[in-house]
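As a warm-up, study this chain.
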Amino acid sequence: MLQPAPDFQSVTEPGEKILWQGKPVFWPFVLHGVPILAFGLLWGAMDLGLFGAAGHSARPTDVHFLTAFMILHSVPAWGGVLYCLYLVLSHSNTLYAYTNRRMLMRGGVFGSSFKSIDYDRIQELDVIVGFTDRLFNVGTVRAYSGNTTSKGSPIYDRFVSIENPYDVYRAIKGVEVDVKTDWTYPNALRPAVNPGYRTEYKPER
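Now compare it with the structure written out below.
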């Protein structure tokens, strides 16, 4: 029988059962930050060249201004390094799960933060397996629930770099369809004594 992580037990509701939980594999999880790190390092190298040349020809009174401007202009470089550091430090605290009611995600570096997405909010569910993922036999399951950025780009909730991603995807999809159908059309998955919303989902074996 699955033994849920203590943190997940503390955020589940009465009658909610964790059907699966898992952690991301370390190296592919961290390597997802390499493109951002590479961009940041390239940006930083260009800044060093540009501001190094400007510093040689600047007047002493302009040095402080150039230094402050360089620090601000180099935010992408610092951001790339800090993002990779965040991935390394947060890996041990990252955990995913799905229950008979929702998907759960735990993360954070110094503390734990939780995020969940109920099945009735999921509009799209898919699997992404990139080149690095193939090397480690992992993948990312992502769900879209209608949230977008200020520019209209979709925001996904993800189980990143997990083992057996297709199995997890199929299982979540199965529970999602069963639960949505059961909410809309109460059926044999609900106990006969109470076909209402808060009855228990019983997956067929």
